[in-house]
Here is the input.
Amino acid sequence: MIKAGIIVFPGTNCDRDAEFALKMAGFNVEYIWHDFENVKKYELLFIPGGFSYGDYLRAGALAKFSPIMKEVEKYVEEDRGLVLGICNGFQILTEAELLKGALTKNKSLKFICRDVDVKVINKKTPFSKYIKKEVLTIPIAHAEGNYYIENYDYLKERNLIAFEYLNNPNGSIGNIAGIYNEKFNVLGMMPHPERNSVKTLGNGDGLHILMSIRRSLENE
Amino acid sequence: MNNLYLELGLKDFEYEKIKKDLNREPNELEVYMYSAQWSEHCGYKHSKELLKKLPKNIENENAGYVMIDDYAVVFKVESHNHPSAVEPYQGAATGIGGIVRDVLAMGARPVALLDSLRFGINIKSKNIFEGVVSGISGYGNSIGVPTVAGETYFDESYNTNPLVNVMCVGLAKKDELASSKANNAEKLYVYVGSKTGRDGIHGASFASKELSGKDDRPSVQVGDPFSEKNLIEATLEILKLKGVLACQDMGAAGILSSSSEMSFKGNLGCELYMDKVPLREENMKPWEILLSESQERMLFLVEPGEEKEIEKIAKKYFLDYAVIGKTIEGENIRILKEGKVLSEMPISSLVDAPSMYRPTEEPLYIKEIKNKKFELDIDLKTAFYKIISNINIVNKSWIFEQYDYKVGTNTLITPGKADASVVWIKDTNKGIAITIDGNGLYSYIDPYEGSKNIVFEAARNLVSVGAKPLGITDNMNFGNPEDDMVMWQFEKSIEGLSEACKNLNIPVTGGNVSFYNESENMAILPTPVIGMVGEIAIDKMMDMTFKNVTDKVYLIGKVELNKKKIGGSIYQRILSNFIGGEIDKVDPELELKLYEAIWDLIENEVVNSVHDVFKGGLTVAVLESALNGGKGFKGNLGNSLEELFGENQSRFILTVPAEKTKVLEDILKSKNIAFKNIGEVMPDDYGFDLGFDKFDFDELKDIYFNSIQKYMEE
Here is the structure.
């Protein structure tokens, strides 16, 4: 079984949701507390949503200084597996500069919770290559999900855009909902695939992403 | 000492009683202690006699519960009205924090929040509204508990005194439930949470008087959701330790009330050490430490020796920790600082505030208002637009989309889609159906029948999704109880709630009383708010949205409107600020019959939607089902304001596929339930043909979904 580690910071609140969804997708799941310093044994690191360290100062700004994030940097550098950051996880990854750009306040200046449709843009990464659908319905829930990058063309040219909103809910540049790093071993996205991982909770679209990750890791 | 007790809100006769209980003059510290414990907020002076009338299933705990399979569903509602009037964001945020800790103290993981909000309609109220919603959003979202349902109502009677009632639902296995009762002497009181500061001192007494309109801000607490989230995880871990005996959150009157009440419940005394409490500020006086309402603090009673384990958990979650006292034999509370006794007195006196109940007579306004007649010369079309664009009627997504209603991945019916929300109990095929409701117009016209109606209305909400009601929690929001009119409204309201619960055979598991909701000499509409939970099988859930074009729409229950019993109908308030007439009475027998029929229809998959007809009457019910389902409608809803918008009880609208109308009618006939085919579901581009006139779909959709946004931008 593929081993997934869920990184839990004080203030993380989607850890249990991630566990449920990853198990549904067939992963072996463990929690990793923020002061733990060994992540090598996991093939997937999942950084869930929430308000790490209270998100004081700026979303994700404090978490990047935690011991575990140093390990995550090494993990990405050494290409030991895949890293998936959802919502606050995405914010942390941009703060830690493992992903480009920044997540700023929603255009409405308000928290938004609703289901959104996202289009799968790059279909050739380990995170996406087994997704059969063009458009996925996935819930968002954030106040700071307005993605911004000065050099939008950089993402475009290198095919680093993972998902785009069909109806932009937060003002993101180019309707961006999720992006990859240059090595395609890190994905950060604002929508929560773990919140729509079974039919009981919607149409189960979120599971396609998690299943693609698992199958890619299995077939490596 | 002479005037201190008066300044702190104690009455002369109360001071005399204190002297008698103590057999001496109280010292300064003791006057502070009594003023907090004997405040209306802590002491329930005007209500405790009457609250005995409610059918309760559990006494003296932080929150009550009902069972679904092996799970205890713990739930309670609480108000934070006065703090929200003064500091809307923090008032609402700390309201969430407080009720979450009540549920947490029972050993339950909080799994859902609900809010019942009432605001005025002036400019100031708009700011309060915006602040309260962002406070709930800011705090509730951060702690990872979804806000799954709620209701919001605007009326001038709440112009300076909003109502912010928040309800929390938690889940625990029965053997995980914790108690707040101390059971043995020489056990340690362990403090876990944020440090104690001067914030919220006198919050309890503040809640027990009318707002002055001057600067009331120092009494409002400040919340830190990050600490609360850590406190939730820490508490659930601590309660798993064997040596942890009891637990209570530090709410109103902080350390004093939590420790004294825990000890009192076990017929024990206690010692508290003022030099051991973790403090945020310097030079805090003992009374400030005892009464501080700093947020995010819990008190545990533990076996000596176990405190080291607790310390480890507290550290892991960045929380302060200290042994601040112990239980002792006897019945005294002893306050010490550096070994010196500052106060010693019987707890029984401190926690048993004198009852101030008095019988009252029906106030004059009741008869007057009954005979008032709503008369208005207005054409139906103009009235229609006025009513359906009113902020009380339109969709509330502007509010609930600011709340994370999905965190926890258990929300199976999300806000706005049905009359109740459903939260999944994940390792079962059951869900908790939840709703919260109130109606100040009804309760003002007839506190007894009005309050009864609200309980049944909550039940109808649950039944509409297919759930069976299990219990309620009540939040009684009233004016100044020293006023005879208010006292009478309160008493009748309690009697109405009690009767309704007996009819439905469900308990009141707990609740809250909030008096003194008035300012500028105007009492609010008496507003009991009912939170109800029920049980549902998750493969048999129903919502209110129209689904298939050509489905037939039926009205069942009281199909012919009794025009003499439409007092309290919101359209009258909207069109000419009118309140009066007679409200419709609940017929419990008919209600129960209707519930049985609806459960049957859902169970056997006869119907495609169920919606209870409430605020705004038949027209609003049809529009809600159609617009939320993205469908049009063709039919006849009547030709007068009364028929279109009048409110009677015991009415539901259902949709049924054309080929199943006979099955539906046969079932209803066999149960002796009246029904009427009022129209059929049409495609959205057809729009609405309501009989008296036609309307464009996109126009109504825009009004329904965007009016609150527009109101906020005005």
Remarks:
- The domain at 4-48+177-351 of chain B is CATH 3.90.650.10 (Phosphoribosyl-aminoimidazole Synthetase; Chain A, domain 2).
- The first helix of chain B runs from residue 4 to 7.
